[in-house]
Amino acid sequence: MANQTISPGPATAAAAPKSVRKKRVEPILFNTFNTLFMIGLVVVTLYPFLNTIVVSLNAGNDTIRGGIYLWPREFTWQNYKAVFASGTIYDAFWISVARTVLSTLLNLGLTTMLAYTLSRREYVFRKPITLIFILTMYFNAGLIPGYFLMKDLNLINSFWVYVIPSMISAFNMIVIRTYIGTIPESLVESARIDGAGDFKIFIRIIFPLCKPVLATIALFVAVGAWNSWFDAFIYTSSRQELSTLQYELMKLLSSSMNANSNPAVAAGAGMTKDSAVNMVTPISIRAAVTVVASVPILLVYPFMQKYFVVGLNVGSVKE
After folding, report:
1. Which regions span the lipid bilayer (predicted)?
2. Alpha helices of the chain — where are they, by DSSP H?
3. Cα 303 from Cα 215, distance rounded (Å)
4. pTM of the predicted model, to two decimals?
5. What's the pLDDT at 81?
6. Residue 221 falls within a domain, yes or no?
7. For residues 177 and 133, is the Cβ–Cβ distance under 8 A?
8. Residue 163: what pLDDT?
9. Residue 110: predicted pLDDT
């Protein structure tokens, strides 16, 4: 039988251009919708912080009227002068920096070592020890037993009360152990054949390869240590030289919320009580405190963003 060539009919010829046009239009519509949605999401996300900055730069008595959006009506630095009026805030800043750096470094080092140990299949106690750490995520003794524990360890009114309790994190250990599980076992076996021990394998192979997840964990630990104020209130409130920045800002905010004016802040800023009523209000002080507390973390975040995105994908794909 001779081969017959079937030519497309009128209906087929008319349908082909429509499918082609549909394939061309769909990506345009999707990209347009996606772009508009992301722009709206960015605006919704950034507006509260931008408005906080604007309020912190606006005169307190004018802020009470409301209607402050993206530009201050009466520009002033008085709110920030009130925040930095107390000389103790500078010492508290360095205490916060020291505790954040030490807590982050110790947490990363010790938690990663623990995660590597519990990731080894040849370690016979890895399952019961892992279970013990997981239980600490759901159960704790409470505030009063925790205080007595710190007291028995002689950590009350000590700088190390900020650092030692946060050296190990069960959640961070699980995240890092999951990431270590994605590293090919052949790398460890090759190192063992070359005569490397566990410590050398950890330092030369595991730790460098964990850079993305470590950057993510470092950001979590640093933000938590920087924003913490309750431990200063509980353990070191009787020693002013150990006060942290967040605790000092919390005290300032609490005092400003008690009334429409704060005589102590006004005196420290070189103002009379009457002028403080007109210039410094709880709303403006709260905005200035928020900006001061957020700036250091905002300066660090861009340098860790690329690792942060990679680290969040840990365990999402298994091959």
Report:
1. 28-50, 93-116, 128-148, 160-180, 201-226, 283-303
2. 10-56, 60-63, 78-83, 88-119, 126-138, 143-152, 170-180, 185-193, 198-201, 207-209, 211-227, 230-235, 245-257, 263-268, 273-279, 282-312
3. 10
4. 0.74
5. 86
6. yes
7. no
8. 93
9. 93
CATH no. for residue 187? 1.10.3720.10
CA distance 215 to 236: 30
Residue 118 near residue 178 (C-beta atoms within 8 A): no
Direct distance between the N- and C-terminal alpha carbons of the chain, in angstroms, rounded to an integer: 51
- Which residues pair with residue 75 across a beta bridge? 58
Could you give the CA distance from residue 75 to residue 55 in angstroms, rounded to a whole number?
A: 9
Q: Is 317 within the bounds of a domain?
A: no
Per-residue pLDDT, 262:
45
280 in a structural domain: no
Phi/psi at 7 (5° precision): -85, 145
pLDDT score for 1? 47
Enclosing domain of residue 196: 87-257
Residue 241 lies in a domain: yes
Burial of 263 (C-beta count, 10 Å sphere; 0-12/13-18/19+):
middle
Total domains in the fold of the chain: 1
**Residues in the chain, pLDDT under 70:** 1-23, 258-279, 304-319
Helix boundaries (H) for 194-272: 198-201, 207-209, 211-227, 230-235, 245-257, 263-268
Q: What is the DSSP letter of 73?
A: S
Please answer whether residues 111 and 169 qualify as being in contact, where contact means their C-beta atoms are separated by less than 8 angstroms: yes
Task: Write the pLDDT tens digit of every residue in 250-293.
Answer: 888 777 776 554 444 444 444 444 454 446 778 888 888 888 88
